[in-house]
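Quick illustration, no need to memorize.
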Amino acid sequence: MNNTGHLAVSEMLNKNFIEVDPGITVSEGRILVAKNQSNLVVVDNNQLIGIVLYHKLYKEGVDPDSSIYEVTRKDFTILEHDSLEHDILTYLRELRYHPLVVTGKENQIEGILVFDLLFDEMAQKVKATQARLDAVLDTVDEAVCLIDESDQVVGWNHRAESLYNIKAENIINHNIEEYFSNLMVTRVIKEHQGVRSVYHQPCKDTHVLISAKPVKMGDDSIGGVSVERDITEVVQLNKELNHASSQVEELQSQINRITGGRNPFARIKGHHQQLTNLINMAKKVAKTNASVLIRGESGTGKELFARAIHDASSRVDKPFVVVNCAAIPPTLFESEVFGYESGAFTGADRRGKEGYFEKANKGTLFLDEVAELPPDLQVKLLRVLQDQKFYRVGSSKPVEVDVRIISATHRNLEGMLSKELFREDLYYRLNVVTLEVPPLRERREDIPELVYQFTQEYSQLYDKHISSLEPEVMALLLGYPWPGNIREMKNVIERMVILADNDVVTEECVPQTLTQQSKDELHQSGLVSVTEQTERELIQSTLEQTKGNRSKAARMLGIPRSTLYYKMHQLGLI
């Protein structure tokens, strides 16, 4: 069947007849052939269909017109070459009375049509088409629905059964409007236009991306088909995330009111020189409206820096809105980021919805994982950053905003630029100032302070009284490379606090994988414990932080005071 929806004569033509010379000619009601004084016999499966003419009659001077009907079993009609692309149904009525012979441009025989043979072949094609359709319906992971011109359901696959909890035997041959009122598949038939990957809410608490189009046979619509992908879980999670973000925003506002003029960067723990330089630069940037790109591995605290910059800026009393670019499905990006008007699409909130840009107006928009945006969405983001205005989905009225942009990524943007995976103009728009947050393994002297802080936090959370860590535990934490950085450390410390049986964290509380990898790292360096140089730097740094208070330094290092004195004496620090 071709793409116009009809079955062409050329697809149903029977060519199973005795091979003859290329010199065959055909005229209405008779066939002339010259081959070894033989008969021309047009057959199918060795069944004579009735077109026969003795060549020797012609040779002996017998007028073929007077003898043809004596040797021809059936009459036939000749079709010209251009009939090959006609719809077979055009000739169905005529075929009930006699065969049709189709000739080519050179008047040679292209093939024949016989009613009985045609009927059998069409029946086989119908069966084959149905078998293929059934296989497709059973294979795809999307819910598929087929309806006819009367809106009767004629196809309903297993994914549709699962999505709507309606068995195929209960809905097939029933009008689809008996089950649904908000229908895209009937709408596309009436509007004679399909849709692709459109957000749709066919019934309460069910959200899908739907593609639908009319089923055409020639110029006539004979039904419709819809394919739906379930995104209910994504939508619900997004709503929960928005709700949680609103709560966090409110709590942050309250914290800002309570803390007053306190240093927003105090939440960033550590005294490594690289970190100190980074904080000083961030403080300078915070006083401006310049776009900031924060780079660093996952778990290094990029969002913490973004919040600190916002809280240290003149926009501190305005919203700080976080957008995880990797978590928003591309099909929902525009409606989530730019918002939408009432009735913009099926299932849209009747009141419309403001997007992240409107929520962040006069404040700061933090674009986390910005490198994960597909190229087409990068273009839309760039346009808003350039113009500071955008259009809600379904609206022709521009919305102007005043938003400070802070973005973050762990990806190599320069490598993405060379591969044309990230737009160069967007890169320069976001990258006015770059802050590179160092990984934890590059600032190991900060580890004791962070361990102490997290231990106290989780001790309070779980109503425990952890006073110290065994020296072996601190050595393991110092030797571990921390691929997940501070986020991973918090998880490890929480686990250790939970598993501690008394007020001291022992080596048994440390995850086995961390213990083994830490020891491997140390042995590969030819060490059994932390090197003397690292120990000396750690102790000196900690004593500086505690202004020489050795008792407090011992607690921060997670070792007894006697051990600290011993180490200081061993390393020549006293």
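The first strand starts at residue 25 and ends at 27.
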